[in-house]
Amino acid sequence: MTSLKDIAQxxxxxxxxxxxxxxxxxxxxxxxxxxxxxxxxxxxxxxxxAARALKTKRTYNIGVLFVDPTHGGLAHEFFSTVLDGIRTxxxxxxxxxxxxxxxxxxxxxxxxxxxxxxxxxxxxxxSADFKDPMVLELxxxxxxxxxxxxxxxxxxxxxxxxxxxxxxxxxxxxxxGHRRLAFxxxxxxxxxxxxxxxxxxxxxxxxxxxxxxxxxxxxxxxSKGCYRITKEILALGERPSCIFFPxxxxxVGGYNAIREAGLRLPEDISAVGYDGIPLSRIMSPVLxxxxxxxxxxxxxxxxxxxxxxxxxxTAIFDRVVVKGSLQEGGTVAQL
Length: 335
Description:
The protein is an alpha/beta fold.
C-alpha cells in the first residue's frame, strides 16, 4: 500500500509537505500541491475521507447546479465538455462532484437545502435561470459560489468572451462582402445581451445597416425553433445574404429550412454558428463558427471555486474571461 513516505520520495519533498498538500493546507505553493496530488493519484494513494474531513472541516465535495431546459442532460453538445472540465479539475485537486437539484429522495427542497443536505463545500452554477428565487437564495448564502456566464456582484464569475466572439464573426462575414445580415439569437440572458451588443456595435462601426425584421429570437440548443424562424426569414421577400445562428446545434434546424427552400450553402445563402462543437466540424460544408473553450470554462470554474474554498481570505471576486477562437469553414461565400 502506498504511504505518504512513498509519495514524498517520488516528489523529492518531505512527508510533512505531502501531508499539507493532501490536506489542503495553505503554506505550500500551488504547483507543489498539484504535483503531489497528481503523484498520489498515479500511485493509487487514498486518504481516509472521514479523518480528512474531521481534520480540515471540509467534505472535499463540490456541488454542480446544471439546469437544462432542453433536457439534453449530460449529452448536451455544449455543456457536456464544460461539465467534464469541472470534473477533471476537481478530481485532480482531490474533490468529488455532486449534482444539485431540488429534490431529496421524493421530497421537494430548495437548491440550498440540497447543498446543505449533501454537505458540499461550494457550488459551481453551470446552467440555471439566474432570476430563479432558489438560485438567488443559493448565491446569497454563505456557501462559496462560482457562476458560469453570469455576473453577480461580490462573486467570482467565469465567462466566455461573447462580445469579442460575436465581433470577430461579424467582421469575418463582412470582410467576405456581406451586408445583409440576419441574426437569430437565443433567449434573453446575459450571454444573449452581450452577443447582441457585439453584433450591433460591429455592424455600426463598419457601416452595415441592421434590419429589425432580420433580428429574431429563438432559444439556445433548439433546432426546431431555428427551423421555423429560418423559414419565416426566408419568406420575407428579400432574403439576407448570411444568417447568424444562436449555436451550432440550432443551425441544424436552420440548414434543413434552407435546403427545403431549394437554396444551397454557401452558393445561395451563407450561415455561421456559435460554440464550435464537434458536430460543426463534420457537417458538409463545414460550419464557420466561433469555438468556445468549453473545457477551459469548466476547469476554470472548478479551479476558482476550490481556491475560494481553500483560501477564502485571498480570493479575488472578479470576472474571469476565457477566450475563444474563430473556426472558418465553408458556409460563408465570398461575394
